[in-house]
Request: fold
Amino acid sequence: MLNEFKDFIAKGNVMDMAVGIIIGAAFTAIVSSLVADLINPIIGLALGGVDFSNMYAVLSGAVAEGASLEAARESGAAVFAYGSFIMAVINFLIIAFVVFMLVRSVNKVKDAAKAEEEAPAEAAPAGPTELDLLAEIRDALAKK
Reply:
């Protein structure tokens, strides 16, 4: 059983998957930072400084006027945090687009490499065929 487990772990697919998960986690941090630190502020500027994450509706309980979502939650009020949902959807769409662009780039590189691989190599100059050689030998013997 231990040998089977070693074989399973040593297979390329398992190792490829492990590397993919590790790289994916690192890539997630990069894309999350891109969205949170670069794109969301630009969206906020374009929409007049609106911060979706603090948009909510109080369902029950008392919340001070203009309180942040965090303060409303700390007060124990039931809040409908639709702004957080909007931000999650925006973040998802941005991340999905970035991943799409990355996959598209990788596919183009793979297609280019495949096209180079499939391109016929320059044909070497064709030498005489066996039939041509036999005809030359026949002609040479006939001259003698």
Q: What stands out?
A: The first strand starts at residue 57 and ends at 60. The chain has one domain: 2-119. The two ends are 79 Å apart (CA to CA).
